[in-house]
Amino acid sequence: FKILRGAGIVRTEIKGTEHINSLRVPELEKKFPGVMKSILKALRGG
User: Fold this and answer.
1) What is the CA radius of gyration of the chain?
2) Which residues pair with 11 in a beta bridge?
3) What are phi and psi of 5, to 5 degrees?
4) Which terminus of the chain is less hemmed in, N or C, by CB atoms within 10 Å?
């Protein structure tokens, strides 16, 4: 996750002893419009 955080793809929120990782979808869509839609479409086989 260190590389993904460094690239700005995920963010990590620390709650107590837990590290919660989430995609930075709004930021990715702003920088690369349509990228998430394309990735999800490819994963579904479309």
Assistant:
1) 13
2) 22
3) -65, -45
4) C
pLDDT digits (tens, 9 = 90+) for 11-26: 999 999 999 999 999 9
- Residue ranges of domains in the chain: 2-43
Q: pTM score, two decimals?
A: 0.64
Question: How far apart are the C-alpha atoms of 10 and 1, rounded to whole Å?
Answer: 8
d(CA 13, CA 10) in angstroms, rounded, equals 10
| 42 pLDDT higher than 80 | yes
Quick check: 1 and 14 in contact, CB under 8 A? Answer: no
pLDDT of residue 46 exceeding 80: no
CA gap 46, 35 in Å, rounded: 14
Question: What's the one-letter identity of residue 11?
Answer: R
